[in-house]
Amino acid sequence: MAKLEGVKTIDMVNGEITKVEYDGAIFEKAEGRAQASDIVRVRDAWGSQNVGEYFEVISVTDKCVRVEGNTCSASCYDYRVEPFRKVSEANPKTVKRKARVGERILITDAGFAGGDPTYKNGDILTVKSVGDWGKDTVIAEEVEARKGPYIYDKEYEVIIEEESKPAPTFSEGDRVKALANGEYGDIAAGEIGIVSDIYVSETDPYTIGVETDEDHDYFRPQDIELVSEAKKKKRYEPTSGDIVVITGNTNSSRNEIGDIGKVGRVRLGNAEVDVIGKTEGNGNWTKFSEMRPATDEEKAEYERAAKFAKLGRKPGEYKKGDIVRLNQNSGADSEGTVVEIASDKARTYIGVDGDTYLSEAEWFELIAPVESRVDIDE
After folding, report:
1. Is there a domain that residue 113 lies in?
2. Which of 154, 214, 272, 286 is buried deepest, with most CB atoms within 10 A?
3. Alpha-carbon separation of residue 12 from 29, 83, 195 (angstroms)
4. What is the number of helices (H) and of strands (E) in the chain?
């Protein structure tokens, strides 16, 4: 977001702007410091921000105001801007209840602060966290930025005016545009990406995962807008015991694309996937969206690997004396013939005629390992 366009002056006193209109809402000049969600008018230019331009306030710190500037997020000292506050917020509709992360609160009884200047009655603040300093406390973004204390539930009421406008909803696979920088700054305002994951949280407002070709970040629902909906395709949801193939790895799993594994525990859009010989019985967490059901051929490949793993061998590691079945015509014996491995690594086998023939390990399917045979001496 750059400077705000379409801000109209609707009242002036002695040549000073006192009331403006923007996006259908009325804003009056406010006393004191700017607050998040105010708009501000530049009165002392800096960087690429010019006198007379209006911007939306993202957050405030001890002495500074952070706005979305012409070219980037910009910070400035309070004296450089004059704040305007939405008229409806002069008497906001409130309810007395516990606030949730991301909600705005009106301070009505700033008793705990005493002489602390970081907040006072009438302040409108945004809740950053809940319960960090006791179950009946919250931390507000603006107060924390000023190095102020936590706030008791008894000191505020929750502003409910905005509840009439529900937060936008998205689906995995939606193509979206970032209206603000992501939680970690890896995706910037203006970039376009795909919704990769969505989760529900009572404490964290950044619940929408978005990925681009190069990065991944999390956003609040109000910080992104829909570009195009995902093609309606039912997402694969594995259950414990499924054999799956890994198709992606954006969470630094030890499992690699193309690995075949068995699903263990499943929760919140992720599943543990145990790949033979790699995770040694302890599956790695993989997103539902980064796996697919294995084909019959891939399932058979996994079962073969599992059979060898139980013997303490690597997949396809044959030993002299193993009883095997040919899965192809060897030239001497036909497909399906049961024969005996004549040398380790299946370099040779004993045919039905008693002769020994050169062979390859992939020709065979294990029937009975030498360790299980009782007809030969070890």
Report:
1. yes
2. 286
3. 10, 15, 45
4. 2, 29
Which range marks the domain in which residue 334 is found?
323-372
Do 64 and 106 lie in a common domain?
Answer: no
SS3 267: strand
Nearest to 332 by CA among 362, 306, 356, 307: 356
Any idea what the CATH number is for the domain that residue 202 is in? 2.30.30
Considering its fold, how many domains does the chain have in total? 5
Furthest-apart CA pair in the chain: how many Å? 113
Long-range contacts (CB closer than 8 Å, 24 or more residues apart) made by 345-348 = 345/317, 345/318, 346/318, 346/322
Claim to verify: residue 68 and residue 113 sit in the same structural domain:
no
User: Are the C-beta atoms of residues 1 and 68 closer than 8 Å to each other?
Assistant: yes
pLDDT digits (tens, 9 = 90+) for 312-326: 888 788 888 888 889
pLDDT digit string, tens, across residues 6-54: 898 988 888 889 988 887 678 889 887 888 778 899 888 877 778 888 9
Structure tokens at 13: 């006193």
The two tokens of residue 128 are: 């950053």
Q: Tokens 């970690």 identify what position?
A: 184
Is the domain of 73 the same as that of 97? no
Non-local (6+) Cβ contacts of 247 within 8 A are: 257, 290, 291, 292
Q: How far apart are the C-alpha atoms of 200 and 100, rounded to whole Å? A: 13
The count of residues in the chain is 378
Structural tokens at position 31: 């006393």
Which pair of structure tokens corresponds to residue 215? 């990065």
Separation of first and last alpha carbons in the chain: 77
Q: How far apart are CA 156 and CA 136, in angstroms?
A: 11
Are residues 182 and 193 in contact, defined by beta-carbon separation less than 8 angstroms? no
Helix (H, G, I), strand (E, B) or coil at 372: helix
**Spatial separation of the C-alpha atoms in residues 358 and 330, rounded to whole Å:** 9
Beta-strand ranges (E) seen in 78-152 are: 81-86, 94-95, 104-107, 124-130, 137-140, 151-152
